Amino acid sequence: MKRQRNTEGVAVQEGSGNVYADLGYTDSEDMAVKAQLVTKIADIIRQRGLTQEGAARVLSLTQPKISKLLKGQFRGISERRLLRCLTRLGRDVEIIVKPAPRRRAGRLTVLFAANAR
Asked: What architecture is the 27-88 domain classified under in CATH?
């Protein structure tokens, strides 16, 4: 967590921007990436008006797995599998590898195209 401040008598601690890091998860960066992917999958399922059963058929997952996924329970589901879900939902996924600035190690970032509805 970053800094602490006082707002109207209530102590508030500003987060780092990654809730998983703030909660102390050792794999916080991976969890944040998965959360972004799951959020996009859920958005597409909602936009299409798919039921959990319908989404399960499209994504080749079971309905209980879809239910857990939509509730944010995605431990045990790989990033690769989530990317496959996006392609099955009609999205192109591009992975770009480029040099990181010298001052820091590389990082994984998820960007969604502006027209990716």
From this structure: Orthogonal Bundle (1.10)
Distance CA 67, CA 69 (A): 5
Q: Give which of 34, 4, 7 is closest to 18, Cα–Cα.
A: 34
**pLDDT single digits (tens) 12-28:** 778 888 888 788 888 88
pLDDT score of 9 more than 80? no
Angstrom distance (rounded) from CA 83 to CA 89: 10
pTM of structure:
0.78
Domain boundaries, the chain: 27-88
CB-based burial label for 10 (10 Å; 0-12, 13-18, 19+): exposed
